[in-house]
Design goal:
Elements: E1 4-7, E2 10-13, E3 41-45, E4 55-64, E5 85-94, E6 100-102, E7 107-109, E8 120-135, E9 141-144, E10 161-162, E11 166-170, E12 177-181, E13 184-185, E14 198-204, H1 206-212, E15 217-223, E16 238-242, E17 265-266, E18 271-272, H2 274-289, E19 298-303, E20 316-317, E21 321-322, H3 323-338, E22 348-353, H4 355-366, E23 374-377, E24 400-402, E25 407-409, E26 411-414, E27 420-423, H5 424-434, H6 443-451, H7 473-483, H8 485-491, H9 493-500, E28 504-509, H10 517-529, E29 537-541, H11 556-559, H12 563-566, H13 568-578
Parallel strand pairs: 3-12, 16-19, 16-22, 22-23, 23-28, 28-29
Antiparallel strand pairs: 1-2, 3-6, 4-5, 4-8, 5-7, 8-9, 8-10, 8-11, 10-13, 14-15, 15-19, 17-18, 20-21, 24-25, 26-27
Helix pairs in contact: 8-10
């Protein structure tokens, strides 16, 4: 939704929800009183030398009371209490040297309007997250932020413009227009280099290129077994480690920890020197990897960032295109061809945590004969009767639980003690400040992009109104039939049973940070009623937060670093029990 305001010398496209800004939206917090006729505003521009053509995108204005850090460096959905104030405004045809005014028309979080900011000193910075025009094969024309190799992170996206932070004193009694110039541009990503153990693959996907109407590439980081080149006769099982956009093979390091590394402190795990722990565990994995008795196999981590998020959820969808088919029918076969994979379903396994946990299970369900087991740790909601803390089929509102007289805000993030750091409204408003129409690059927006049909204007149809939280039952029904994994397994069990028995393994902490536990409870009830039995496993980590992955012997801070070998005992037994007669069980055990 865009509103254009014509001003002499200015071109400004209004923010989402202008029409609703003055209305009473059900369940929303009452706005703080603003000074009538007096507003704080910022005139944002970029030098003409930065771009010869006009630019589309979203100006993201950040105001931080932390005067020691660059504001764009601490915008994290996982740590909302550490985030600055965020205000967003769409721009179309923004020209060099011409300012766009960011004022109360911009949508803000956690303060709705700029004029409501408390008086004080702020470090102010603006970023222009640039959009491009996509012309899809189905006729849709969309303006979206393309990934530029950074994993769909607007604060680090190559080509995005940003300003040098400036210190500004704000006072509602004396509002002023502050000029901000986007003089800086984010540099391109440095390509990864291959090594003895890690290789990098990038292929053009015919399926995705056809859908998006432009060249689309898939990438992967491949971890090779010891002495790969010395054993040309060997063919290997394939382990697909799903997860967020990987910088490279994770938790693998061929050198001892850096003795000069300055220790940090992990707020999440309450551990000093966690960066050193991570390096030590990565080096310990390398030592396992090259040991004489360790089985040899291929590990891959996939790059499939897109205009909506840092990965695609590895399934086919109306808004992202056929990523499931592209990964499983184009990328995986190419990797197995290049690196001598066995290339058979009994020798492929998939695993991951959080987003990767959902992807691992979804891949196993939608491509049941292509894989021989899925290990889904702390998965994103696998049963939409518990889409975090909402039942999308029965609840009316995503943000509040309503009683006769009382309405309670639904929480979104907690720690292992149950202390809440954000509500569902906070998480979604934080996204809305960064991008409307599902373009924030955030968690709820990618769930919508993956699980929903195309909506009005061609953008993803929202499950719920982003401002009011009201749930759309028609969209909820679409989600159930296409992506509610628990429901789909039960619905299709008659034909899936021979292909999935013994392959499903799910792990989650009882105190998951994002309330992902309940969906596993519901899924477990369904799975344990299936006939014939599903023959898999489900386990819960007592008091464990996100992302517990099934090892009760290790603290979560350590076990989360062990994905690439943790499930090996189950995998090796599964191979031994299910490999067909004559299968290659020896060439890869040197």
């Amino acid at each position: 939704m865009r509103t254009t305001t014509g001003l002499r010398g200015l071109f400004c496209t209004g923010a989402l929800l202008l029409a609703a800004a003055g209305s009473a939206d059900p369940g929303s917090a009452p706005p703080k009183p603003a000074m009538p006729g007096r507003t704080t505003s910022f005139a944002v521009s970029f030098p003409a030398a930065r771009s010869a053509s006009a630019l589309d995108g979203r100006i993201i204005l950040l105001l931080s009371t932390d005067l020691a850090r660059e504001p764009r460096s601490h915008v994290s959905p996982d740590e909302p209490l550490d985030a600055p104030y965020i205000f967003g405004l769409n721009v179309e045809g923004m020209s060099g040297g011409k300012a766009v005014v960011v004022d109360d028309a911009a949508f803000g979080w956690p303060t709705r309007k700029l004029s409501q900011l408390p008086a004080g000193d702020y470090l102010v910075q603006a970023v222009l997250n640039r959009y491009e025009t996509f012309r899809l094969a189905d006729g849709r024309t969309l303006k979206l932020p393309p990934d530029k190799g950074e994993g769909q992170q607007w604060a680090q996206k190559p080509g995005n413009l940003y300003s040098t932070p400036v210190r500004v004193h704000l006072d509602r009694a004396h509002p002023a227009l502050t000029r901000i110039e986007l003089t800086n541009v984010i540099a391109p990503i440095t390509p990864k280099t291959d090594s003895e153990f890690v290789r990098h693959v990038r292929i053009r996907s015919e399926l995705l290129s056809r859908f998006w109407g432009r060249d689309v590439y898939l990438g992967a980081h491949v971890l090779l077994p010891k002495d790969f080149d010395k054993h040309p006769e060997a063919h290997y099982p394939l382990m697909v480690n799903h997860g967020h956009y990987p910088e490279d093979i994770g938790d693998f390091r061929t050198t001892p920890p850096d003795p000069d590394l300055k220790p940090d402190y992990s707020q999440r795990f309450h551990l000093a020197g966690y960066n050193r722990i991570q390096q030590q565990e990565a080096y310990a994995f390398y030592q396992k990897w090259i040991s004489a008795d360790f089985p040899r196999f291929l590990v891959i981590e996939i790059e499939h960032a897109n205009p909506y998020y840092d990965d695609s959820y590895a399934v086919n969808s109306a808004n992202l295109g056929p990523y499931g088919d592209a990964i499983n029918k184009e990328l995986i076969p190419e990797i197995e061809k290049r690196f001598r994979g066995i290339g058979a379903g009994w020798a492929r396994f998939t695993y991951g945590g959080s987003t990767g946990g959902w992807e691992a299970l979804a891949t196993q369900v939608f491509y049941p004969e292509m894989y021989n087991g899925a290990f889904a740790a702390c998965p994103d909601p696998i049963d939409f009767r518990a889409y975090t803390l909402m039942n999308i089929y029965e609840d009316k509102n995503a943000y509040v639980v309503r009683g006769e007289a009382l309405s309670v805000e639904r929480p979104a993030i907690r720690n292992y003690l149950g202390e809440i750091s954000a509500t569902q409204r906070d998480s979604n408003y934080m996204e809305l400040a960064q991008g409307d129409l599902g373009r924030s690059g955030g968690q709820y927006d990618i769930w919508t992009a993956v699980f929903s049909p195309a909506g009005k204007g061609g953008y993803p149809a929202p499950l719920f109104d982003k401002l009011s939280g009201v749930i759309d039952p028609e969209v909820a029904a679409y989600w159930r039939e296409h992506y509610d994994l628990s429901y789909i397994i039960e619905r299709d069990w008659a034909k899936l049973a021979p292909k999935l028995q013994g392959k499903i393994h799910i792990y989650v902490g009882s105190a998951d940070t994002y309330y992902l536990t309940d969906a596993v409870y519901f899924a477990q009830e369904r799975l344990e009623k299936l006939q014939p039995p599903y023959q898999g496993s489900i386990a819960y980590g007592d008091r464990a937060e996100h992302c517990w992955n099934g090892d009760p012997t290790q603290p979560n801070a350590y076990s989360r670093l062990h994905y690439n070998f943790q499930y090996l005992p189950v995998i090796l037994k599964r191979i031994a029990d299910s490999a067909p007669p004559g299968a290659d069980l020896k060439s890869w055990r040197y």
